[in-house]
Amino acid sequence: MPNDALGWLGAAELAALYRSRQLSPVEVAAAVLRRIERVDPGVNAMMRLTPEHAMAAARHSEAVFQRGETPRLLEGIPFTIKDLHATKGVQTDYGSHTLQGTIPAVDTPGVARLHAAGGMMLGKTTSPEFGWTGVSRSPVSGITHNPWGHGLNAGASSAGAAVAAACGFGPLHEGGDGAGSIRMPAHFCGVYGFKPTHGRIPCWPMSNNDLATHLGPLTRGVRDAALMVQAMAGPHPWDYTSLEAPPQDYASNLHLDLRGKRVAYSADLGHARVEPEVAALVARAVRVFEELGAIVEPVTPAWGPLGPELARFFWPAAFAAKLRLLPEWEDRMDPGFVALLRAAEGLGVPQFMQMRERRFAYGQAIHAFMQDYDFLLSPAVSVAAFPATLLQPADWPQHPWDWLSWAEFSYPFNWSGSPAASLPCGFTAAGLPVGLQVVGRRFDDLGVLQASAAFEAARPWAQHRPPLAA
After folding, report:
1. Which of 76, 188, 263, 362 could form a disulfide with 25 if both were Cys (CB 3.0 to 4.6 A apart)?
2. Digit-coded pLDDT (tens) for 346-363
3. What class does CATH assign to 3-469?
């Protein structure tokens, strides 16, 4: 097998080749690192590489297979970590000059678990400043380019992870999602992004996003995502919201017969603007669920139109603590982030608590709605990729910080804590990917993975490779 092809292999494929001694982890780590060094200058997905970490882990895993020992879940499997998440001894800049050069003393729990499962960390992927925006650029790393079109938005804040997945930089890429930042880049880059139930994967340091931030995988296939969640999930005392339940064997239980499943489908959640080409591709994807035997019901949820006002309040509020940085750092910060922070000035405690009551009621309305359905389908994002120099597509209303106008489908399920995924479901006439969102009931992470796997089997996507990955 050509060395350059090794970066495209899935985790299960790599594990089988290791067991049969047709490949070694050292060979794979070296080959994928070489591929990244060759391809990444054209896409800018990697904040930094960690070859010494990868090769040390690879040598350890190679010895495991040579000695015939029982391999761990991710023995010798390459992974990357988003630069918003702490990695022991590895520089973590959080996309901001204000923290550039930070060397964490510990790994965040999910990272520690990937290491403990036998994974090989290749490096850190790019993110916008403190993860504030859905557009793939930061003052520190510049633009991360969509692999389907240079200069186009790759989504954020897990843009680097999605681009790395799309470009064959190994199978597993960790991301975070506070308002759509796993599902948005998955949509824009044509990969699979899964946001588990809130608390399934412990988050540390705990986000100031008021119980709305989830960690999860970006991969080229559903099985790899299931393996990554399985390795990272489980309770941890550093995150008091982490779920006590141990992780399930997600990857071995992906089969689901969709016949008779009740599936809601909302084209716009009752308020969102959607580009016609995106809407048509999503509607066609929804028909696949009908072909697989699901009972699909078009819906217009009453809670949908209540979201935008809440989102425009809570997104600035989530970052308000960063206002302290402006006197020293404003001229070196993302101007859109500065505008967002200015929007948070003057917010008072009574107003915040009143809006928080409304937001909790909003989340409860979603849970009540989902009692009647196994899954909810919608677009993942309203638009296909647009220039990364903009916060909104050029023909959309402009605003100094409000990128949420084209991402109205994602943040509701951060607030409800529900599992949700973006599945590649087609391409626009310009060759840009579009994602279908699948939302499940809270705690039904396996169900969303199973529904995703059923769609993937019916309409495979991993064979599509973007031009900038060449």
Report:
1. 76
2. 999 999 999 999 999 999
3. alpha beta
